[in-house]
Design a protein that fits this description.
GO molecular function: DNA binding
Pfam families: Phage_integrase
Radius of gyration: 27 Å
Distance between the termini: 86 Å
CATH architecture of the largest domain: Orthogonal Bundle
Family: Belongs to the 'phage' integrase family.
Protein name: Integrase
Strand order of the largest sheet: 1-2-3
Structural class: mainly alpha
Strand content: 5-15%
Shape: elongated
InterPro entries: DNA_brk_join_enz, Integrase-like_cat_sf, Integrase_catalytic, Integrase_recombinase_N, Phage_Integrase
CATH superfamily of the largest domain: Intergrase catalytic core
């Protein structure tokens, strides 16, 4: 229960004032005993207090910056990226939302990485990267002059090194084919993922009209890179197998459900997860769908081909850090 105010009766409940030497500062204290400065102008301070109590981001706060970024910038990214950024933005808002952008310091970002990194170090790095891009955009918008995330060391990450062997992939495809019709479809898609080296989302949205005489034309959703994957006998056979699957309704997509519609990312993940769980239960080592992309890129590197032409990466840095799963490097003698 809030005690009856005896002084400053012109102030609304939960607003207090401090008279400094030159100006008055208005502030509030939350139920968790958190001190929040509202400003020096009474009308503006009242408005900020109402926004706080209603759960809305305070004008000029990092919370407002996050909301603007998620409305204007994030939706322009790949659908999967935007979807992943929504919970990350919410977490950042809960931690930094009430601060002013100019008050955020590198030490605050580092502290967030340390605390969040105790349970989710990789996720903390992704959230820090998102916050950094938000502040880079804020610099373009004229909100801040510097990015407090720059120069803050990330948490150490151990690159994934799971490499799916040829024998494993062959055996998994045979296993999946023996389960049911869904398993037969997943077997074909697994082969397609390896042969093309493309991301799951791009394969699920692959339209039949993109199967040209030269090969498969893909515009990658993540970076908009255009990749033409030329036909090989194995790739032609894989695509033919997908076309031959039972589909009562003729659709526009190579990989589709019985109604001719493309699978959603979550729906496909669920189907893949069920077959992979059965594969593991039968005594085999599991692997992710993304491991097949790494397998394809690793094979390109082993063969001395330019893997970026297949993966769509602008440089080889990401290939070396994430996708090159070779257990050892091979080289001929100098002479």
């Amino acid at each position: 229960m809030i005690a009856r105010r005896r002084t400053n009766l012109h102030l609304p409940p939960r607003m207090y004032m401090y008279k400094g030497k030159r100006k008055i500062t208005y502030y509030t204290i939350t139920a968790s005993n958190e001190y929040i400065t509202l400003g020096h102008d009474l009308a503006e301070s009242k408005r900020k207090l109402i926004e706080l109590e209603e759960g809305r981001p305070v004008a000029g706060s990092i919370g407002e910056l996050i909301d603007r970024y998620m409305k204007e910038i994030s939706p322009k990214k790949a659908p999967r990226t935007h979807k992943d950024e929504i919970p990350s933005a919410e977490r950042l808002r809960n931690v930094f939302g009430k601060m002013k952008p100019g008050d955020l310091r590198p030490v605050h970002v580092a502290k967030y990485l340390d605390l969040r990194g105790q349970t989710a170090p990789v996720r903390a790095n992704r959230e820090k990267s998102l916050l950094s891009h938000m502040f880079s955009i804020a610099m373009r918008w004229g909100i801040v002059d510097t990015n407090p995330c720059k120069g803050v060391a990330r948490n150490t990450e151990k690159p994934r090194d799971r490499f799916v062997t040829d024998e494993e992939l062959i055996n998994f495809c045979r296993f999946a084919e023996q389960t049911n019709e869904t398993g037969r479809m997943l077997s074909c898609v697994a082969r397609l993922a390896y042969l093309t080296g493309q991301r799951r989302g791009d394969l699920l949205r692959l339209r039949l009209d993109l199967l040209t005489e030269e090969g498969i034309m893909i515009t990658q959703s993540k970076n908009r890179a255009k990749v033409l994957i030329e036909w090989t006998p194995a790739l032609k056979d894989c695509v033919s197998s997908l076309k031959d699957l039972d589909r009562p309704v003729s659709g526009l997509f190579l990989i589709c459900n019985r109604l001719g519609q493309p699978y959603t990312d979550s729906g496909f993940k669920a189907m893949w997860g069920r077959v992979m769980a059965a594969w593991i239960k039968s005594g085999n080592a599991g692997f992710t769908f993304h491991d097949l992309r790494a397998k394809a890129i690793t094979r390109m590197v082993e063969d001395g081909r330019k893997a970026a032409d297949l993966s769509g990466h602008a440089s080889d840095d990401m290939i070396r850090k994430v996708y090159d799963r070779r257990t050892f490097k091979r080289s001929k003698a100098v002479e």
